[in-house]
Amino acid sequence: MTAHVRPPLPPRPSIPRGEYAQRRAAVRLAAQQSGLDGLVAWSAGGSTLDRYGSVFYLTNHYDAGNVFPDVRPLFTGFGMAALVVPSYGESILVVNQPDWRDDLVAADRVWVRRDLYGGVAEALVATGLDRAILGLTDEERMSITALRAIEHELPGARFVRADEVLMAQRMVKSPAEIEMMRYASAVSVELLDAMFAEVAPGRTDGDVAAAGYAAAARLGAVPYDFAMASGPDSGHLWYSRLPSFDWRRPCEPGDIVHPDV
User: Fold this and answer.
1) Alpha carbon 49 to its chain's center
2) 228 in Cβ contact with 246 (< 8 Å)
3) Which of 12, 79, 117, 248 satisfies CB 3.0 to 4.6 Å to 149 for a cystine?
4) Domain 17-170's class?
């Protein structure tokens, strides 16, 4: 019997730069139809994208910096970003750090403000939204400190929850997004294959994870964590700890090992 040989990964796809402008135009129209004068999309960075989806979706901007406690007057909103989208007119992306990727970001305008909260208020004034009805997306990612600071600067503005406006657009995937999803799934298969090849008596979960991280680094992937457990812990998806796996215990014959990416 001939062993199955998986074909090599295809070239890495990307989202066409113009698609981000199309997304903002669609969201702008949806805001108009919802009776909103504009939107404020809020995001928080760090090691994973699960709190950064909206700004990333609309501009291709991602801040890998962790969210730090505010240290006035040095900075507020470190690791966060916000996109101000007026229903009519150009949007403004407000970022906290000056080394944003101008080769990747697709936005109408980008402002760097170490005081991110003050910068968002400034952007709302510049776009004529200082006394507007504004849809706020991802408010669970926004600190109450940030909201209070902006409302203090702009007492005439009113913020209402508007996640549905943006999520209705994000649920419909473009051909480029679908290709990206397929590619990400194929990369995950490569990582899992590398990890399963490492499973053997005497090896640890740390050895298995190391194989996965090595494969990821060579493929330009960044895992948030490997959700895995083995042996006595195999009844758990993962433990609430970092790392989630036991990197010290050697596997024994009969152990169940279930790495996940």
Assistant:
1) 2
2) no
3) 117
4) alpha beta
The C-alpha atoms of residue 158 and residue 136 are separated, in whole angstroms, by 10
Q: Which amino acid is at 161?
A: R
State the residue for tokens 């640890």. 204
C-beta atoms surrounding 139 within 10 Å? 16
pTM of the model: 0.90
Local confidence band at 4 (pLDDT 50, 70, 90 cut-offs)? low
CA neighbor of 244 nearest in space, from 209, 216, 212: 209
CA pair distance 76, 70, nearest whole angstrom: 5
Domain regions of the chain by residue span:
17-170, 174-261
pLDDT at residue 210 in the model:
95
Paired tokens of 31: 């805001």
Peptide bond into 73 cis (omega under 30): yes
Residue-wise pLDDT tens digits, 39-91: 999 999 866 667 888 999 999 999 888 888 999 999 999 999 999 999 999 99
Contacts of 157 (CB under 8 A, 6+ apart): 124, 129, 130, 131, 132, 134, 150, 151
Does 236 score more than 70 pLDDT? Answer: yes
> What stretch of H or E contains 209?
helix 205-219
